[in-house]
Each structure stands twice: as structure tokens, then as C-alpha cells.
Design a protein that fits this description.
Layout (H helix, E strand, L loop, with lengths): L2 E3 H8 L3 H10 L9 E3 H10 L3 E4 L2 H4 L14 E2 L3 E6 L5 H9 L3 H6 L8 E5 L5 E5 L4 H9 L7 E7 L6 H13 L3 E6 L8 H9 L13 E4 L8 H15 L2 E2 L6 E10 L3 E10 L2 E2 L3 E4 L2 E9 L5 E2 L1 E2 L4 E7 L8 E5 L2 H19 L11 E4 L1
Parallel strand pairs: 5-7, 5-8, 8-9, 9-10
Antiparallel strand pairs: 1-2, 3-21, 4-11, 6-7, 12-13, 12-20, 13-19, 14-18, 15-16, 15-20, 16-17, 16-19
Helix pairs in contact: 7-8
The structure holds guanosine-5'-diphosphate (GDP) and magnesium ion.
Length: 370
């Protein structure tokens, strides 16, 4: 027989735990909210409160869509998502800032920028590119460990005056392990002591053969300081993206990945998310990690209010009940009832993981329908 806590059962019935305790007291049972009760007692309570008993199967609750693949005909091209990696001081932050500066939309909007962990630019040619503004492989590895593979392309920054350094090698290894294609940006080419050819030669030692050396890894000489090579870098990113035929179904309930999240004193929990598929809309009911909520408002990286966010668009979401974690999956669901079920399920999974206990068998767990 499976057991469930009074609090958990109350949560699933959307009733107050105290009311359940009271009701059980009337039935002659003395329990506290954190106490577990057996299946028979739980069923009794569900009936007592006038709900229907519904057993939830694992496939029902698998909203993480591991098995749910969008049919080919629903897929439309989407922008690439790019992460910049490289050794400290080789110019990752400078390059991200310089690339942000090439955004034609930002030019029109007057250049207000809010930092939110990711941004999207519209290129001169009208294409979109999304950059994760969390440089460094720590973020990249952490996201991957949490099962979030959001990066399509890695731009490896190597300073032409410093060459291949330990973190350059680490970045190469992480990128290879992730199976993500790489573009090498040889930075600081404005410096008199810059030696881009040496960088290309040294990359051979790590099995990176760039185009200039007749290989198939694209490389480009840039300067984040002068802006040299930035257009070419964007062109190469778009070329790589084209080869990958990146697509997603925009016409479905959204799924997104949390890039970063924080608690804002005025606005409450804020999460920057990147839409993986579907279109995220204001008013959507969602579950994110173990939190749930409703999209109250969405802002882009230019501080503009959005009503909708398509695949590969990063947005800041207001209206989540708590602060989720980077790498958490956000899923839009059809009802608040469903959101409660799913967040309860995920909380249980998280607790089971924490206490290193096997999670309760799901097909014998209950949920209640109002
Ligand atoms: P990060 O640690 O990789 O994020 O590197 P930063 O972007 O913070 O850059 C480190 C230093 O290199 C800063 O002093 C930058 O101003 C400088 N820097 C970055 N890119 C360039 C460049 O293209 N040319 C020159 N001359 N300096 C650069
Ligand atoms: Mg930096």
C-alpha cells in the first residue's frame, strides 16, 4: 500500500491541509499535516471532500516530453543559440558586448539594455541570433549536467596575443564532449603583438583544424575593441546554423529552459528563460522546476514588454511562485489543476533525490479532480 502525507494530499485536492486534519479528527483519527496516511484513508478523504479519485500514471505526468517529438511538418526554422567560451581575459565579455552592439533593433530602440543572461540580436540581413550572456564553461557544464542542452554553437575566443591557455583547452574538451560545433574567434587582432597564425597552428595540437589550415572548423580574426571581424563572425554563425537546419514547432504550448533566476524586491521571482519550442504567451499557466505560476508579463533584453515569445527567444518572465534554478525546464500546462499536479510530482521527485530514497511508485499515486 502506498502512503501520502496529509499536506501532499491536500495540495493535490487543492484543499487546506487543516481541513483534512479536522475531517480526519471527526472520523476519529488524530494526524498532523506532515504525517503519512495509507491509501484507504486517503481515498476516504478524497470522497469525503467530494472529489473523484484518479490514479495518475507515469506517462500521464511525463510532461517533460522526453518521448513527445514534434512531427516534421510542424517544424519551422529557428535562430541559433550561441555560447561564448574561452580563457579568462581573452575577451568573452567584451565580445558579447560588441556583438550586442550590432543589434539593429537595439539601434532603433535607443539602446536600453537590461542584463538578463541571454540576448537576441537582429542582424543587418534580418536574421536572428541568440547569445547566452553567461560566458564561461562553468555555466555551460552546469546546464549540461542538469540535462539542459540549449547551446547549438560554441564560439571559442582565443586572444591572439596570448594563445592557447588552460581554459581554452578545457573549453575545447567541453565542446567536444557536448558534440556542439565550434567557431574559433581569434580576438585582440588590433594588438601589434597579435599572432593569429600561431593560434591556428597551436589548435592543431588539440585536433582543431581551422579553415585557414584547410580544415572544416570556421575561424575568424576579430577585435572586440575595434569591431573588426564582427560581421564576418555573425555570417559564420549563420552559415553554421544553416548547415544544422535548426527547427522547432512554434505552434504548441511552450517549453523553455531557465538560464538564470533571481528574487527581485519589487517584482518578485524573475526568471530568464529561453524558449525551446512552442510559443510562450502572457497568461500561460506554467510549471518550472518545482515551482508553478502564470506568466504575468514578459520582457525582452531591450526592456520591451512582449505578449509572445517564439523558439530561441530569451525572455524575462514575471509571475512564477518561487525562484527556479538555472537549467530547470519550464512547461506550459492547460490548467492550474495540472500545474499543481506536476509541481507536486516534481517536488516529490526532488525530495526523493535529496533523501536518496526511491521515489514512490507513480501508478499507485493519487491525484484528485475537483
Ligand atoms: P573575459 O575575461 O574573457 O570576459 O575578458 P574581458 O572581455 O573582460 O577582456 C579582458 C581584457 O581584454 C579587458 O581589459 C578588455 O578591455 C581587453 N580586450 C578584450 N577584447 C579586446 C580586443 O579585441 N582588443 C584589445 N586590445 N583588448 C581587448
Ligand atoms: Mg568576462
Amino acid at each position: 500500500p502506498e502512503a501520502i502525507t496529509v499536506a501532499e494530499l491536500a495540495n493535490r485536492m487543492a484543499e487546506k491541509a487543516a481541513d483534512l486534519v479536522k475531517s480526519m479528527f471527526k472520523m476519529g483519527m488524530m494526524v498532523t499535516v506532515n504525517q503519512t496516511i495509507d491509501q484507504d484513508t486517503a481515498e476516504l478523504l478524497v470522497e469525503e471532500f467530494g472529489h473523484n479519485i484518479q490514479r495518475v500514471s507515469e506517462s500521464d505526468i511525463d510532461i517533460d516530453h522526453t518521448t513527445d517529438v514534434d512531427p516534421e511538418e510542424t517544424l519551422k526554422p529557428r535562430p541559433p543559440v550561441v555560447t561564448i567560451m574561452g580563457h579568462v581575459d581573452h575577451g568573452k565579455t567584451s565580445l558579447l558586448d560588441a556583438l550586442r552592439g550590432t543589434d539593429v533593433v537595439r539601434g532603433e530602440a535607443g539602446g536600453i539594455t537590461q542584463h538578463m543572461g541571454a540576448y537576441q540580436i537582429k542582424t543587418k540581413g534580418g536574421d536572428f541570433v541568440t547569445f547566452l550572456d553567461t560566458p564561461g564553461h562553468a555555466a555551460f557544464t552546469q546546464m549540461r549536467m542538469r540535462g539542459a542542452n540549449v547551446t547549438d554553437i560554441v564560439v571559442l575566443v582565443v586572444a591572439a596575443d596570448d594563445g592557447i591557455m588552460p581554459q581554452t583547452v578545457e573549453a575545447i574538451n567541453h565542446t567536444k564532449a557536448a558534440g556542439v560545433p565550434m567557431i574559433v574567434a581569434i580576438n585582440k587582432c588590433d594588438k601589434p603583438e597579435a599572432n593569429p597564425q600561431k593560434v591556428r597552428e597551436r589548435l592543431l595540437e588539440h585536433s582543431i583544424v581551422v579553415e585557414e589550415m584547410s580544415g572544416d572548423v570556421q575561424d575568424v580574426e576579430v577585435s572586440a575593441k575595434t569591431g573588426k571581424g564582427l560581421d564576418e563572425l555573425i555570417e559564420k554563425i549563420l552559415l553554421q546554423a544553416e548547415l544544422m537546419e535548426l527547427k522547432a514547432n512554434p505552434d504548441r504550448m511552450a517549453e523553455a529552459t531557465v538560464i538564470e533566476a533571481k528574487l527581485d524586491k519589487g517584482k518578485g521571482p524573475l526568471a530568464t528563460v529561453l524558449v525551446n519550442r512552442g510559443t510562450l504567451k502572457v497568461g500561460d499557466i506554467l510549471v518550472v522546476g518545482t515551482e508553478s505560476g502564470r506568466v504575468r508579463a514578459m520582457l525582452d533584453d531591450k526592456g520591451r514588454q512582449l505578449k509572445q515569445a517564439p523558439p530561441a527567444m530569451p525572455v524575462e518572465v514575471l509571475g512564477i511562485g518561487g525562484v527556479p534554478m538555472a537549467g530547470d525546464l519550464l512547461t506550459v500546462v492547460e490548467s492550474e489543476q495540472r500545474a499543481r499536479e506536476v509541481s507536486a510530482y516534481r517536488q516529490e521527485q526532488a525530495t526523493a533525490k535529496r533523501t536518496a530514497m526511491a521515489p514512490a511508485s507513480l501508478d499507485t499515486m493519487f491525484s484528485a479532480l475537483a
